[in-house]
Amino acid sequence: MLLIKIKPNGILGKLLLRNGKFDGRNLGPISFISKELTGRNKEAVIAHEKEHYYQWKKNPFTFGIKYLFIPEVRYKAELEAYRQQNYIVEAPDTYSYYILNNYKLDKLNLTIEKIKNDLLNKKENSIWENYH
Prior knowledge:
By secondary structure, the protein is mainly alpha-helical. Helices cover 58% and strands 11% of the residues. The protein contains seven helices and three strands, in the order E-H-E-E-H-H-H-H-H-H. Strands 1-3-2 form a three-stranded mixed β-sheet. Strand 2 and strand 3 (30-34) form a beta hairpin.
């Protein structure tokens, strides 16, 4: 995985990090992270983006399309990535809020409680297997 640090308020940062809404973004073999990240937060975001890289690597020709157009795939992918991030910086309430509000998952009728439970539950959920 190629890791590129970008300024969140620069042109790439505004485009890829959505004006600071995100600290990282993965595009297949390339991950972008904010230059402003330091310490454990930086390590946690890298772990999150690295998980997306592994997801893409398993299905390089279909992962991105499925992620964009199938909310269940996007939800599962983000759960797996935030789970990795949570191992380093434990903040399940914050991550659950981010998942609920930043990933266009309205069709799934999720709640913060459901997301937090799924995030902390290591048992894999069958949704992911249905879309591989």
